[in-house]
Design brief:
The chain contains four helices and four strands; from the N terminus they run ββαααββα. By secondary structure, it is α+β, with helices and mostly antiparallel strands. The chain has one domain (2-88): Arc Repressor Mutant, subunit A, CATH 1.10.10. The strands form two sheets. Strands 1-2 form a two-stranded antiparallel ribbon. Strands 3-4 form a two-stranded antiparallel ribbon. The longest helix is centred in the N-terminal third of the chain and has 13 residues, at 16-28.
Length: 92
């Protein structure tokens, strides 16, 4: 946990296990979009809301999820053929 001296406000830092738990759930869900409330319900352990927001921000910055007004969508793709096509810049 990190303490910001100027505001004396505690910022919740997620553990690696918590980040992996959220990432695994999002990557394996059947639905295309999930809300934060639904995500919290499906997690195997309860998680602090601010900690979850930090995790979601990290996953969005690393291009693994897209966060919209409708919810959260897993967008990370590990398909090597897709990566090769993008790298070659093949236009249709």
């Amino acid at each position: 946990m990190y303490v910001n001296v100027t505001n004396t406000k505690v910022i919740h830092s997620p553990t690696l296990n918590t980040v992996i738990m959220v990432e695994d759930l999002l990557s394996s869900m059947d639905e295309s979009v999930i809300t934060i409330a639904e995500l919290k319900k499906r997690l195997p352990k309860q998680i602090n809301h601010n900690t979850l927001k930090v995790i979601l921000e990290y996953l969005e910055r690393s291009n693994k999820i897209a966060v919209t007004l409708k919810g959260i969508t897993w967008v990370h793709n590990t398909n090597q053929n897709l990566k090769n096509a993008i790298a070659k810049g093949l236009e249709i």
